[in-house]
Amino acid sequence: MEARSVFPEDVLEAILSRLTLENDIIYLTSDLIRDFSQHCTDKPMKLFNFLFCGGVVNGVVLFRWAEYYWLWNPAIREFKSIPQPRPDRAQPDKLKEYTTFFGMGFDQNCNDFKIIRSVKSMIEEDDGWEEKHIYEIYSLRANSWKRVESPSYRLGLSMNSRVPDGYFNGAYYWPTEVYDSETASNPCRFGILSFNFSTEVFKLVDAPPPTWKVRSESEWCIDKYKDFLAVIFTRGNFEDKVCSFDIWVVNKFDDDDPTVPLSWQNLFTIGPIPCGHNLLFRAFAWDGDMLLVVPGTTGRSECAFYNPTTCSLKRLGMLLTNCLRYVESLFPLSKF
């Protein structure tokens, strides 16, 4: 089915998001509430306060709440509950686990949806807590989880939940800070961690160089800009109360592994935008417009579309905390 743009028309119905209102009520699209309620009758509605979206692949959306995962195809109203991971627990009362990041992709070699996640495991010992990281992958075709080999680096990773669109060309990508040792307190460089869903292997490459002067006034993330894998560096200027965005895209991938970026191009800089120094990037629309979080007219933050060509800002009057680009498909989950 032809890809359908969901920005900026029909924002409430087309963007799968959770909206935090002034009275702390969590609003979801009516379709999500309808389908989720029918398939997860044992889960309280308040779980939406902690519902994370892990992106959309081939029209299928991934949701996570605590250690529960669901797949949803809103076009055909199919919902699938994923079995909960069961890591080895010799002493469950002395074990604490936290999901640090996750993502979904599609393995074209075996026509299979897969989910990759990282778990920080804290085991209580006599002399304190021992920390280790476990990496697990779920196969929809096998309907089970298994462990995969960990990256051989010490990385500073986050779920990047505000921009859940790191899937591109058969792999998932995360921005990360790389440390040269387990005891180092400061990162030695910025990197891009990729996971190939066909080979089930992690790769780490250097990220393009940021142009920040003050680290505390900046952030960066990975998204798709039109047909490119992109890195977006946000640069805030506290004194002038403006914000700029440096857009880098991959212009060459590895011939042996086409999911590994080899070189980057600084495509352009957007801004400075005079809406404050702490604007937050949320997503690129299909036409290149940016979805941003900006200071609202009433003092509260709100989302707005920014057109880099006309430098115009269209406020939406609402705050979208999870945003993604949705491509409708009729891919059936029931075939697995």
From TrEMBL:
Query: Which residue intervals define the domain F-box associated beta-propeller type in the entry?
Result: 39-270
Q: What InterPro entries does the record tag this protein with? A: F-box-assoc_dom_typ1, F-box-assoc_interact_dom, SCF_F-box_component
What Pfam families has UniProt attached to this entry? FBA_1
List the PANTHER family: BNACNNG10540D PROTEIN (PTHR31672), F-BOX PROTEIN CPR30-LIKE (PTHR31672:SF13)
What's the protein called, per UniProt? F-box associated beta-propeller type 1 domain-containing protein
Q: Which organism is it from?
A: Carnegiea gigantea
